[in-house]
Fold this protein.
Amino acid sequence: MLKKIKIKNMTVFPEAVLNFSPGLNVIIGENGSGKSHLLKTAYSVIAASAEEGRKPNAGEPTKALLQKKYAEKLINVLRPESLGRLARRKQGRERCELEFSFAESDLDSSFGFATSSKSEVQIDKLPLIWEKTLPVFLPTRELLTLYPGFIPIYESHYLEFEETYRDTCLLLGAPALKGPRAKKAAALLKPLEDATGGKVVLENTGRFYLTIPGQGKMEISLVAEGLRKLAMLARLIGTGSLLDKSYLFWDEPEANLNPRIVKLVARVILSLCKNGIQVFIATHSLFLLRELEIISLDKAFKKVKHRYFALTLKDCGVDVEQGDSVQDLQSIVMLDEELAQSDRYMEAGELNAGN
C-alpha cells in the first residue's frame, strides 16, 4: 500500500505532500491541474519495481539498476522529450525530488533529477525489496478494440502511445482465472456482466468479443464505447489483475459514460476497495464524486477508507488540499461551477416566467 508521496519541483507542482488512504483516493481538479501527472508518476515508480521483481533472474534492488529503470518508466509513461523536462523550470528550483512511502517500509524510495537529466535519476533512498504485484492503469479510453496486434507493434516500432497502453494490454491478454479464485471474482463480475449483457472473451484470433446468452458473440468494436470500458474492467477482474491486493490507477473513469453507467462504476470502484485494492482516480466529474459519497454510506462499504485531494491552479503552480471527506475541501472548482450554473438556470427560469 502506498502511504505518502512528497514532491518538489515536478511539472506543475512546486511542493506537495500527499497522504493516501489504503482504500479510495480521489484526485479532483480542472484540466491542466496535474491530476494525470500524479497518477502516472505513482504508477511509474510502482510498476518499475514490480516489473523488475517479476523477472526470473531478479536479485535485490541496486542503485545502478533503479536509476535507469525509474527514469525509463517515467519517460515512457509521461512522454517528455527527456527526463529533465519533468522538472519545474524556476530560478533556483532546477531539481525535481520525489519520495515514496509504503505500508511495507522496505519498499520506501526517494530519488531526484535535474532539468539537465536525460535518462537517469539519482537515488537517495534505495528500496530493499521489489513490489510484489503489478499495478493496473486504466486510461481515459478503452483498450479492447486497440488490443489486436498492439503489443508486438508497440515493442518493435516507436508509437506515440504512452506505455500504460502497452502495460494494460499485457494484463488484458492474461488467461482467465479458474478454480477458487474464479469463484471469488464472480461476485465482482456480476454487476458488470449484467450491465454489458454478457461476458467478455478473448478468442484465439487475438480479438475480444462479448458473448451474449441466447445471441452468440458480438465483436467488441460493435459494443457501445461506455460498455467497452466496463468490459475492460471485467476482463481485468476475470484475469485476477484486479482481484488480489494491488493498485488501480484510473484516469477519468467517467469519460464517455452516461450517468447510469457512472453510478455502476462508482459501486464497482468501492467494491474493489473493499476487496483490498488501493484505488486512485482522477476526475473532474461532480456526478461521480457525489455518487461515490452516496454509495459509501451503504453498510457494505462503511469500512472503506477515503481520501480526497483538490488541485487548484495558482500563479506559483498547483496547490494541493486534502482531507478524509469532500467536506474537508474548500477549493473544488467544479463544485463552484456547478453551483454557478444552478444560479444561472434559476435566473433564466425567472426571466422566462416574467416574459
The chain has a mean pLDDT of 89.
